[in-house]
Design a protein that fits this description.
alpha/beta; five-stranded mixed β-sheet; 6 helices
């Protein structure tokens, strides 16, 4: 049996990382990788030491706010934001790294990832944010939806 391709391996890890999420709506995981080594991981949830949505409930849900809107009133950070923060706290540069996410990054996370100097973003599920996709394309950062489970990703050859 052939070994699992690197992109699938990293995407499977994002799914495991997502299980730490404290979001009541969507569990998201992310990780930054350089030269096939994991630099940082992140999942969506409240900042350390702050009550999470398991305890407080979801304000966006209570207000009937659709997915993808009014992120600013959410208690949680996105998985990609937590990857960036974890790397910064530990003094790890993300310049040139690839980022793997369970979901396509939103606009806010996309802008942050662009400024980190990442080289690529791979995600397992799309997210309805055309401006984020357009900005990744404009920045020259490779972005691709990986075909998961059991099938070869269409962008596997682009991943080292």
């Amino acid at each position: 049996m052939p070994r699992m391709p690197w992109p699938h391996y990293f995407m499977q890890i994002t799914r495991l990382v997502a299980q730490r999420s404290t979001c009541l709506r969507r569990k998201v995981g992310a990780l930054a990788v350089s030269k096939r080594r994991i630099l940082a991981t992140g999942y969506n949830g409240a900042p350390a030491g702050i009550r999470d949505c398991f305890e407080t409930g979801c304000l966006r849900e209570q207000l009937g706010i659709p997915s993808g809107q009014r992120h600013e009133i959410c208690r949680g950070l996105h998985a990609e934001q937590n990857v960036i923060i974890q790397a910064a706290v530990h003094g790890v540069s993300l310049a040139g790294a690839e980022v793997y996410c369970t979901h396509q990054p939103c606009l806010i996370c996309t802008k942050m990832l662009i400024n980190c100097g990442i080289s690529a973003v791979y995600y397992a599920e799309s997210y309805p944010d055309q401006l984020a996709a357009d900005m990744l394309k404009e920045s020259g950062i490779h972005a691709a939806l990986l075909d998961m489970p059991g099938s070869e990703p269409s962008s596997a050859e682009a991943c080292p």
